[in-house]
Amino acid sequence: MSLPIYLIGARGCGKTTVGQALSEALGYTFRDTDHHLQSTTQRSVAQIVASEGWERFRQRETDALHAVTAPGSVIATGGGMVLAENNRRYMREQGQVIWLSAPPDVLAERLQQQPEAAQRPTLTGRPIAEEMGDILRERAPLYRQAAHHEVSAMQPPAQVVEQIMHWLLRARAS
Ligand code: ADP
Ligand code: MG
């Protein structure tokens, strides 16, 4: 049995970075719902949101989640994937869900250092650190609810991967 592994958490928590390393360590395929969306629509997230709005984007995001779900995959999900109750339930039922958690100031700092940060519109147009605080207040309960396990994203990626591997071994033995 090689259930899909879903990585959830806010932008910047390391879902893509950790997901790629974890998939290599497990010999799994790496999938990323944002990348899937971009390659199937040939548009960036920002372009989809600008032309179709957030609601349609969220629907496309759910479709992407279903499309990439397969055994033997590590799946990095969009930061807002947990907003929909049906996405949370789907991930919990289909696989093992891991939340990479970190405080808002750390996430904002990481995003500010990323050139592609501009690709994704902020939700409000306010400074990213401020906005990240609000987003986490709203979403932390949803990440917690969706996750089978929480791992601190405040350690180097290799260590995050190691902790996840450790938890998987125990979870799969029980
Ligand atoms: P996500 O996919 O969750 O948005 P990324 O994997 O793209 O996050 O990482 C966002 C940025 O933070 C990247 O520049 C990445 O190199 C950096 N990063 C990711 N994980 C860590 C970590 N555990 N410690 C330090 N920096 C990290
Ligand atoms: Mg990512």
Automatic annotation (TrEMBL):
Keywords: Amino-acid biosynthesis, Aromatic amino acid biosynthesis, ATP-binding, Cytoplasm, Kinase, Magnesium, Metal-binding, Nucleotide-binding, Transferase
Protein localization: Cytoplasm
Enzyme class: transferase
Binding-site residues, Mg(2+): 16
Free-text cofactor note: Binds 1 Mg(2+) ion per subunit.
CDD domains attached to this UniProt entry: SK
Single GO molecular function: shikimate kinase activity
Main location as per UniProt: cytoplasm
Annotated binding of ATP, by residue: 12-17, 120
Record flagged with keyword Transit peptide: no
Bilayer-crossing regions: none
Enzyme Commission number(s): 2.7.1.71
Entry cofactors: Mg(2+)
Catalytic activity field: shikimate + ATP = 3-phosphoshikimate + ADP + H(+)
Binding sites annotated in the UniProt record for substrate: 34, 58, 79, 139
InterPro entries reported for this sequence: P-loop_NTPase, Shikimate/glucono_kinase, Shikimate_kinase/TSH1, Shikimate_kinase_CS
HAMAP family: Shikimate_kinase
Cited function: Catalyzes the specific phosphorylation of the 3-hydroxyl group of shikimic acid using ATP as a cosubstrate.
Record-linked PANTHER family: SHIKIMATE KINASE, SHIKIMATE KINASE 2
Assembly mode: Monomer.
Name the UniProt record assigns to this protein: Shikimate kinase 1
Species the sequence originates in: Pantoea eucrina
